[in-house]
Design brief:
The protein contains 12 helices and 17 strands. It is an alpha+beta fold. A hairpin with a 5-residue loop joins strand 7 and strand 8.
Length: 481
């Protein structure tokens, strides 16, 4: 028999019990009747916002423990929302949402080359604290990303081809599990849970903080090359040839963006498509950087911003928008790509089509292709490229976006490895795609570990991994819409 309790409507919970929880919690405890409810539950992704029965704005471990105890005691499912681009996973309604954005802080140990980072901390804070010691974290393209959610889902960084996934460099985690216990988790104390948390996202508890490795990187050779969108086929083909020649220390991506005709953009980009090659080269000696990028410069970019920069300015490479948006996205991991792949992609993107607003290929391989020193659940390390398509729902109807995304993902199907990366799963069917983020044996192991640490699947309002056993996976999402 399943140990999951039937859903409890918030109206069924006595107001005195909610008041008692609020008295135990230092941060806010809100229902939909409260003025700050919407602000507390809203993250970067506006297309799919969770509508919980209760939102708990946790300020520390004690608040999280109180919220977990309340949820399990009432049979309520839970979700966790961090900071930056973080979202609560699969949106829906009901349950308890814990917002960890108030649990912030960084402690750098320069001698050990590590940092302890609290759950509500963004990468820009870690970058700032690590820089005086000549160190840098494995942060993403946007420095406003929340550290913990990004890392628990794998974490593809600007330095990953040299150092691997961010999850490969986690030393320890402080986590509140479904029994309300605060655990300090290491490979020695809890080997199974340590393995599962690094790649399993928020399926096993609420992570309060993590200890991570920092890398001896102070300066990058980085920036971008820009080309007119109508040269997409030529430049994409040349880029793919070039990626086969570069060292592991060089990470890159190519993206075509369709710009709206809006005054916020430069006149030459308004209402047009532009192709961007973004580069981050980390090496002990950067003297050969210009030689490495010479084949791309020979293509004649219209804009060239490649130069040496301190890692503190690495956010300028991608210039990701800092403001929230209503986003629909699709993703796939691809193997080696050829001329047929270039033709397939270019036939389904602007100017041949109206959508998507952005397509991107990120070059994988290098250290990403190798297992970490301490194994974790991050899978599909054999993939050569990450393929993403993104459209903003403010600019097009969802009835047009979704078929366009399906067409382009179908077009690259011959080159797909069958997997996805969890951090980039943000489309309509993300909940049904969770298995594809893991190798089959690893997924089975994750469900078995879930059965130990969260047998009732309390943490299920997310990219859910149901516990192994009699629990029906089809019913594991609680009572989400």
């Amino acid at each position: 028999m399943s140990s999951v309790k039937p859903p409890v409507e918030v109206a069924d919970i006595d107001a005195a019990e909610i008041a008692a929880l609020a008295a135990r919690v230092k941060g806010p405890v809100l229902t939909s009747a409260d003025e700050d409810y919407d602000a507390e539950r809203t993250g970067y992704q506006l297309a799919r916002r969770h509508r919980p029965d209760l939102v708990v704005g946790a300020t520390g471990a004690a608040d999280v423990q109180a919220a977990v105890a309340f949820a399990t005691g009432h049979g309520l499912p839970m979700a966790v929302q961090g900071t930056g681009h973080a979202s609560a996973g699969i949106a829906g309604s009901g349950g308890v949402l814990i917002n960890t954005s108030r649990i912030a802080g960084v402690r750098v140990n320069a001698e050990a080359g590590t940092a302890w980072v609290a759950a509500g901390t963004r990468w820009d804070q870690v970058i700032h604290e690590a820089a005086p010691a000549g160190l840098a974290p494995l942060s993403g393209s946007y420095p406003g990303l929340g550290v913990v959610g990004y890392t628990l889902a794998g974490g593809l960084s600007l330095l990953s081809r040299r150092y691997g996934y961010a999850a490969d460099h986690v030393r320890s985690l402080d986590v509140v599990t479904s029994d309300g216990r605060l655990r300090h988790v290491t490979v020695d104390s809890d080997p199974d849970l340590f393995w599962a948390l690094r790649g399993g996202r928020d399926n096993f508890g609420v992570v309060i903080g993590i200890e991570i490795d920092l890398m001896p990187v102070g300066t990058l050779y980085c920036g971008g090359l820009q080309f007119p969108g109508e040269r997409a086929a030529e430049v994409l083909a040349a880029y793919l040839d070039w990626t086969a020649t570069v060292p592991d220390g060089l990470s890159s991506s190519i993206a075509q963006m369709s710009y709206p005709d809006a005054p916020v953009f430069p006149p030459e980009l308004r209402g047009r498509e532009a192709l961007h090659i973004r580069i981050a080269y980390s090496a002990d000696v950067l003297a050969d950087a210009d030689r490495l990028v010479a084949p791309l410069r020979a293509l004649g970019p219209t804009d060239d911003t490649l130069r040496e920069l301190p890692y503190t300015e690495a956010g300028s490479i991608y210039n990701d928008p800092p403001f929230p948006g209503s986003i629909e996205a699709g993703t796939a991991l691809l193997g080696e790509l050829d001329a047929d792949a270039v033709r397939a992609i270019c036939a389904e993107v602007p100017p041949q089509t109206v959508l998507p607003h952005l397509f991107e290929l990120r070059h994988l391989g290098g250290r990403l292709a190798h297992p970490p020193a301490v194994a974790n659940a991050v899978g599909h390390r054999d993939a050569r490229f990450l393929f993403n398509v993104v459209s903003r729902r403010e600019r097009a109807d969802i009835a047009e976006i979704r078929p366009a995304h399906r067409r382009i993902l179908d077009a690259v199907a011959p080159w797909r490895t069958g997997g996805r990366l969890l951090n980039f799963m943000n489309g309509e069917d993300a909940g049904a795609q969770v298995r594809s983020a893991y190798d089959p044996a690893d997924y089975r192991r994750l469900t078995e570990i879930k059965a130990v640490y969260d047998p009732g699947n309390t943490f299920r309002l997310n990219h859910n991994i149901p516990p192994a056993g009699p629990l029906d996976p089809e019913a594991s999402s609680g009572y989400c819409d």
